[in-house]
Amino acid sequence: MIVDRLAVTLAVCVVCAVAACHSSTSTAPAHVTSGPALPPSSGTVIGILVDEATTLHLRDDQLDQLRAIDAALVVRNDRIDGEVRDGEHPAAPRGPRRHQSGMGGSAKGRMVPPPPPGARDLIRNPQQLQDERTSNNREALTQAFAILDPDQTSVARRLLEDHGVPVSSEPATTPEPGADPPPASPALP
User: Fold this and answer.
1) Which of 7, 81, 148, 187 has its CA 20 to 30 A from that of 114?
2) SS3 of residue 41 by DSSP
């Protein structure tokens, strides 16, 4: 009877060990989920089109032109990002902090001169910087759509929408002189 219990316990342990050590020979996950679209490698809206060159069936000359537009957009947007970073971080102190006397002067009596007239007008607020970035993106997309064939343009619009880039389908129109400008649309061309 003790031998029977021991044999049953040993059999159960062997079965459990085999089940625990059993691994699938497949390295792929059992289920593949489609996550959100990855950002473009360059970080721009034109980078999406460059990354999707095979989907768009781009010719070599089109791809080269899109890469040039993308590189120019990266430079323009990096300048804006630099202004944003400069505005977020105050200047680091340049030495040991000294006791300041009244009227903004130091203990030695030196005073910091006020900024020159109009200097504050040169500092742009975050909304102005975002507006410039949006304008840069619109201009780059207009240039990119001019390079693409009509069937490529429709696929490009769908790809951009899939990546969360709003793209309007109506062509840009020039307002007549003296007419009220159309209401601003957040959608890109």
Assistant:
1) 81
2) coil
